[in-house]
Amino acid sequence: MMQKMYDWVDERLNITPMWRDLADHEVPEHVNPAHHFSAFVYCFGGLTFFITVIQILSGMFLSMYYVPDIMNAYESVKYLQTEVAFGVIVRGMHHWGASLVIVMMFLHTLRVFFTGSYKKPRELNWVVGMLIFFVMLGLGFTGYLLPWDQTAYFATVVGVQIAESVPIIGPYLKYLLTGGDIFGALTLARFFAIHVFFLPAALLGLLAAHFIMIRVQGVSGPL
Amino acid sequence: MAKIDKDATFVGDSRISAKRIPNVSPSYSEYPGKNEAFWPDFLLKEWMVAAVCLVGFLVLTVSHDPPLTARANPNDSSFTPYPDWYFLFLYQLLKYPWVAGKYVLLGILGVPGVAFTAMILAPWLDAGKERRAFRRPIATGLMFIALFCIFFLTWEADHHHTAQLAAKGPAAAAPAPADPNFKADGMWAAQTSCISCHGGNMEGGPAAPNLQKVGTNQKPEDIQKIITEGKGGMPPGMFKGSDEDLKKLVDYLASLK
What is the ipTM score, two decimals? Predict the structure, then answer.
């Protein structure tokens, strides 16, 4: 039955080459922790992606309750955390997952650095990886404001003041982030839009480029 | 343009080839070493690593509730800002006088800017063929220095923050819960400007602390100083009465223990 359904689709869309392209690539011995336990360092990239998926899913659920305006943002987060069934778990996963992504990505970057995997011909993938790193930091920075509590508000004020002191582009950067002269309704709306639409879109594009490049080039060889 | 095979046959009028490709995994037995297929052999093992990671993650989530402090109050100038931990090293760096004030450019673009640019350009800065870390001591050494600086600055930032909170006193760190049975003296009821922030029963509010036990950790002269000169978000000169009345109020507040 399944086979017949597969053949029916395959005859029309020729999906076998696409599927084999995803599934067929050899995993060499030196990156396989089943053969060499120390190869667990090669897992950090995959774990970063795994936690990124958790972040996307938990974020989607958070957005069912979160209200991005200064009157209701704090109340909605508080309601989610104290009243909604398992709300505290969903927000907890998103909150701690944000830290965990940074940790995993940091370890992945160090693995790539110390194994010299960024060298020719993989320079471009390293650059894309660094861009992913900055996008992730941007997601952390913009997401931190959204609960609209005291720590969030004042940490963001300091962060934007730092951005403002960059020469030439600083004031424009501040205006772009805050949407005006004060930290208020527009600031929260902008941080929400950046956190939920702009940066995730950039992240997904960069991740696709990262994964396509690693598939085209293959994992770096043993040291 | 794709190569066109004149003998090719297609499904209907589409571009899909009528010839089906068999859906089987290749064998990697000819490869050197113990290669295995990504699908499904290796992916299952990777999922096991992910499952272990997920269990640790969920234990953390269940045991530690995500923090949520009081609702943001832009008028509270006494709140000590504290960024998320992975920005602490940058935050701490900018506290040092040699990268702040008129040298702030060095602090913002100089140190982190150079470090991040060097990270992006690493493949061209360290362009040699050698991949082993101990055979390229400059790259490895610089990375270790950077790591040391990041860990040190993060630790310092946390240390400073803890010291700052301790300096503000226990009242600022953890406000005493309001006692609903507390009854303020008639003298307090006359102080409308005090009541507007500290509440009719001294229970405190979003911008002002609870004063029901203010005598426990404040001496009378400190209380008087706060009333006349203000503190944090409290402006000076809120008390409008005579010096004698001020003295009475201070004595009353100091007696609250």
Answer: 0.91
